[in-house]
Design goal:
With 135 residues, the chain is mainly alpha-helical. It has a domain of 58 residues. It contains two helices and no strands. The longest helix is centred in the middle third of the chain and has 59 residues.
Length: 135
């Protein structure tokens, strides 16, 4: 609710009247929305009631609809898996690039703190040294 502070010139009764109009508008808007929902549900139930004895055509239509939904669910699941896989690969690439960017600074800070420090022999991207893998 966005209320303004009253101006020194604006009388308090004018402000109260404006707030009352806003509240009436909000109430009417809520009533119209509720009436719309009730109307949609009413006609929806009436449509279902009208189709109550026509089993074959409705069952065929519903089976087609559910088949389409199941195919869409599979498509969305497959698309989501592909997107997440691509996101993981991109994230890994960016992480290795960031490590490579920071590795010079990290080495200089480590040798400043402890000049006797030995290297872990990781690659500049932060990966395991190929000689240590045991392949």
């Amino acid at each position: 609710m966005n209320l303004r502070l009253p101006d020194p010139v604006t009388p308090q009764s004018t402000i109260l009247a404006a707030q009352e109009v806003k509240e009436k508008y909000r109430t009417a808007r809520t009533g119209i929305r509720a009436l719309g929902f009730v109307t949609v549900f009413y006609f929806g139930f009436r449509a279902i009631e009208a189709m109550a004895g026509q089993d074959t055509s409705i069952s065929i239509a519903l089976s087609l609809i559910f088949t389409a939904f199941s195919e869409l669910k599979f498509f969305f699941a497959l698309s989501l898996a592909g997107l997440l896989g691509a996101w993981g690969v991109a994230e890994r690439y960016l992480r290795h690039r960031k490590v490579e960017f920071l590795q010079g600074r990290i080495k200089s800070l480590e040798t400043t703190i402890d000049p006797q420090r030995t290297s872990s022999q990781l690659t500049i991207e932060g990966k395991t040294n190929p000689r240590d893998r045991g392949d």
